[in-house]
Amino acid sequence: MKIIDGKALAVQMQADLKVKVEKLSEKGVVPGLVVILLGEDPASQVYVRNKERTAQRLGINSKVVRLPDQTSESELLALIDQYNQDEQWNGILVQLPLPAHISEEKVLLAIDPKKDVDGFHPMNMGRLWAGNPVMVPSTPAGIMAMFKHYDVDLSGKRAVVIGRSNIVGKPIAQLMMMANATVTIAHSRSKNLSELTKAADILVVAIGVAKFVTADMVKKGAVVIDVGMDRDENGKLCGDVDFDSVKEVASLITPVPGGVGPMTITMLMEQTIRSAEMSENNNSYSSNK
Ligand SMILES: Nc1nc(=O)c2c([nH]1)NC[C@@H]1CN(c3ccc(C(=O)N[C@@H](CCC(=O)O)C(=O)O)cc3)C=[N+]21
Ligand SMILES: [Mg+2]
């Protein structure tokens, strides 16, 4: 068993990103990321602070707009429009989840797809599913970067994703399919779940249930990626995977914390920088294809 050190990989990739930002800044293009956060949810506060700190460390201009929970939908939409128009900001991120009185769909549609560094706008989701990704959700992008760095070849492999969310489950399934894996998406209504997971060469878990995946559900030698950010019975941060038992079965496994989380932040920075590069190249908003 080997542990995937997401923290170390993040540090290494961020060193390269810092050089990129310096080069862009010399040309007068300073990447700018604005994060909009509604309410006081403590977990969201931590993530947003991490994003802000990392952006600043890389020389990215960053701003966090903290708004009260009761902010109206129209106020939020007006604010997004203001940042859409302002060239100084090439990345706009609205922290999810949003309060119940605000339509997530309306908010995500309001963000200029060119500035949608989360890759959650339907235009960016559609381009991903069409096989021409431009902005890719950062957690899935971070997982793919881990596969690359740790030489995990997906071609022809059986990959199982548990979780069907738009921000992790669906996009990571598509990215692995693009890398020629045979992908199954399982979820809370799937029957005989451990039958599916036991067949997986690659297992990605994103369901939000602490230590849900146990050793008996995992094939010997599997690669296990844990996207969970949960609390155990003692209130300690843990993932969706029972790390202590599953690590004895897996060939490669991500810890929580120090696995997927730091990579998520790193890929968000990378996309912010790419967005700045696109705006420099005459607003070219296109994939590499
Ligand atoms: N519009 C939007 N975009 C997001 O990308 C987004 C979001 N909303 N809402 C919430 C989720 C969650 N997310 C995390 C980012 C970093 C860590 C992270 O840094 N985790 C650290 C530990 C953090 C801690 O100590 O709590 C680690 O795993 O080592 C975790 C989770 C981004 N999200
Ligand atoms: Mg789900």
From TrEMBL:
Annotated GO CC locations: cytosol
Transferase recorded as keyword: no
Keyword hit for Amino-acid biosynthesis: yes
The Tetrahydrofolate dehydrogenase/cyclohydrolase NAD(P)-binding domain, residue ranges: 137-278
Any GO BP: L-histidine biosynthetic process
Positions contributing to NADP(+) binding: 163-165
Catalysis performed (reactions): (6R)-5,10-methylene-5,6,7,8-tetrahydrofolate + NADP(+) = (6R)-5,10-methenyltetrahydrofolate + NADPH; (6R)-5,10-methenyltetrahydrofolate + H2O = (6R)-10-formyltetrahydrofolate + H(+)
A Pfam match: THF_DHG_CYH_C
Metabolic or biological pathway: One-carbon metabolism; tetrahydrofolate interconversion
PROSITE patterns hit by this protein: THF_DHG_CYH_1, THF_DHG_CYH_2
Residue ranges of every copy of the Tetrahydrofolate dehydrogenase/cyclohydrolase catalytic domain listed in the record: 4-118
InterPro entries: Aminoacid_DH-like_N_sf, NAD(P)-bd_dom_sf, THF_DH/CycHdrlase, THF_DH/CycHdrlase_cat_dom, THF_DH/CycHdrlase_CS, THF_DH/CycHdrlase_NAD-bd_dom
Highest taxon above the source species: Bacteria
Assembly and binders: Homodimer.
NCBIfam families recorded: PRK10792.1, PRK14179.1, PRK14186.1
Function: Catalyzes the oxidation of 5,10-methylenetetrahydrofolate to 5,10-methenyltetrahydrofolate and then the hydrolysis of 5,10-methenyltetrahydrofolate to 10-formyltetrahydrofolate.
Family to which this protein belongs: Belongs to the tetrahydrofolate dehydrogenase/cyclohydrolase family.
Protein's UniProt name: Bifunctional protein FolD
Gene behind this protein: folD
